[in-house]
Write a structure and sequence with these properties.
The structure is a single chain. The chain is α/β, with parallel strands linked by helices and about 475 residues long. It has helices spanning about 60-70, 90-100, 115-125, 145-155, 165-275, 280-285, 290-320, 335-345, 345-350, 370-385, 420-425, 445-455; strands at about 50-55, 80-85, 105-110, 135-140, 160, 330, 355-360, 365-370, 395-405, 405-415, 455-465, 465-475. The strands form three sheets. Strands 2-1-3-4-5 form a five-stranded parallel sheet, sandwiched between helices. Helix 3 links the parallel strand 3 and strand 4 (about 135-140). Helix 5 runs antiparallel to helix 7, helix 7 crosses helix 8 (about 335-345) and helix 8 (about 335-345) packs across helix 10 (about 370-385). The longest helix is centred in the middle third of the chain and has 108 residues, at about 165-275. The chain starts with about 50 loop residues before the first strand and ends in a 6-residue tail after the last strand.
Length: about 475
């Protein structure tokens, strides 16, 4: 049926303020939401999908009524139409400020001004940056707004002359516009989802990159520690042989000097009987033999003590590094590892006047990788030393014990303590509360990794200003993963 739209409508609805009330029903111009149920049935709440939102902007009430009547049975994709009406450009602009769900605007051009509808188009597209809503211009004065110039100069989707706009043409126009809106909306939703997925992916990649950097730095640090251990073991081996020779030679020299003094004593006893020459008597007065006897014995003993000390340090270095056995699981007494580590830290302990208290319990040997556990002891003890402020009289207590099938080691200090906000992070890689350049933040992280590798646990408690206690527990027998 090719009847003009303006001829196929019921009598005009009452108008307030020059426009039809918003969201009126197509079957009832006076009340109810503008939802169109097929076959004249009223829609039930929740029974229909969300309707298409159409804004009709026109200063002629008859146009609103005719549009609702023409689309009274309209349905697309199972969705009916909900109308919103505006009687002027100003009212349409105000509505569009708050409405984001309008799919189509059926817009008159000449209303309060000759270009009022075009002002709406410009505001929607340029002001609100709304490129999604479809806009169809309907004008009764095509001469005042020529189609060619309007279509080119304004971002609209269709241009209709009211005199030629039949019901079928209106329906065709609305279907085309709503399908276009649907496709653009789906495209926009896909683009938004893609952006969200891209942002999530970038965030995940950033996390992975950070983890890779951390693991790489930890591997580098681990390699450095391994190199230091190998170097220490090599140096210890190279020093050990000559120091053993020096110790042996000093012992022999001490015995030889003792024999020489015995010979000298016998000679001195025989001199008065033989009649000592004048020169010999002068030398006896010039050289204080008794002083030489005491001084040489003292010097030899100091050298022997020093050599023994060096030999002990070298042996401690070899025991600490355990290069040849560090990757092997073996039965070890932890007290030996603690003693070796404390020996290597003797200089640091003396520099801060730190007293070490040992409260060793009766613990069995455990199956472990001793070289790695020695690194853990070094990290814990060194942190305890560094936690004690310079000039303060500090104390470090090392405790051990055994509970069921596990042994435990505690290292406590009377240092400055750790703030609660930092305590939960001390085992994280690169986390440190020390000044920049004073630590890499890997010591406790490495300790955590080694203890977990051994099937153990490590934890810390601290009171700010009073000190920290770090406790680790280890299984007696290693169970391969």
């Amino acid at each position: 049926m090719n009847t003009s739209l303006t001829l196929q409508h019921p009598p005009a609805d009452p108008v307030e303020g020059g426009h039809v009330a918003a969201r009126e029903s197509a079957n009832s111009a006076l009340d109810g939401p503008m939802l169109f149920a097929p076959d004249g049935l009223e829609p039930q709440a929740g029974a229909l999908p969300k309707p298409w939102e159409i804004l009709v902007v026109d200063d002629e009430p008859d146009v609103h009524a005719a549009t609702r009547f023409a689309l009274r049975d309209f349905k697309l994709d199972g969705r009916t139409i909900a109308f919103t009406s505006a009687g002027s450009a100003a009212e349409a602009i105000a509505l569009m400020q708050t409405r984001q769900d309008i799919a189509l605007i059926l817009l008159d051009v000449v209303m309060e001004t000759e270009h009022a509808g075009l002002d709406v188009v410009r505001h929607v597209r340029d002001g609100l940056k709304n490129k999604l809503v479809r806009i169809v211009l309907r004008t009764g004065h095509p001469g005042q707004s020529p189609e060619r110039s309007v279509v080119i100069d304004y971002d609209i989707n269709d241009y209709k002359d009211k005199a030629d706009l039949t019901v079928q043409r209106l329906i065709t126009c609305v279907v085309s516009a709503l399908r276009s809106y649907r496709d653009l909306q789906q495209l926009e939703e896909s683009r938004t989802a893609l952006k969200r997925a891209q942002a999530d992916l970038q965030q995940a990649l950033a996390v992975q990159e950070r983890l890779v950097r951390e693991r790489s730095d930890m591997l580098v640090q681990s390699e450095k520690l391994a190199s230091v251990g190998q170097l220490a073991a090599g140096v210890a081996h190279e020093i050990n042989t000559p120091m053993a020779n020096v110790a042996t030679n000093l012992g022999t020299l001490r015995d030889d000097v003792s024999d020489l003094f015995r010979l000298l004593d016998a000679t001195r006893a025989a001199v008065p009987e033989l009649g000592a020459p004048l020169e010999l008597r002068r030398l006896q007065k010039e050289i204080n033999v008794d002083f030489l006897r005491k001084d040489i014995a003292s010097l030899l003993q100091e050298n022997i003590t020093g050599v023994e000390r060096v030999r002990k340090i070298v042996q401690d270095l070899r025991d600490f590094s355990q290069v040849d056995r560090s990757k092997k699981w073996q039965w070890v007494n932890l007290h030996r590892g603690l003693e070796v580590t404390l020996s290597l830290l003797a200089t640091d302990l003396q520099a801060k006047s730190v007293v070490v208290v040992k409260e060793y319990g009766d613990i069995p040997d455990i199956e472990c990788q001793s070289g790695e556990l020695n690194q853990v002891f070094l990290a814990l003890l060194l942190n305890a030393v560094q936690a004690i402020p310079d000039g303060a009289q500090g104390e470090i207590t090392v405790r051990t014990g055994c509970e069921n099938d596990r042994v435990w080691v505690e290292v406590s200090d009377t240092g400055s303590g750790i703030a609660p906000v930092h305590l939960s992070r001390i085992f994280e890689p690169f986390f440190t509360t020390k000044p920049v350049g004073s630590g890499a933040g890997l010591g406790l992280s490495m300790a955590y990794g080694v203890v977990r590798k051994h099937g153990g646990d490590i934890s810390a408690t601290s009171i700010l200003g009073r000190g920290t206690v770090v406790r680790l527990t280890l299984p007696i027998s290693h169970v391969a993963a």
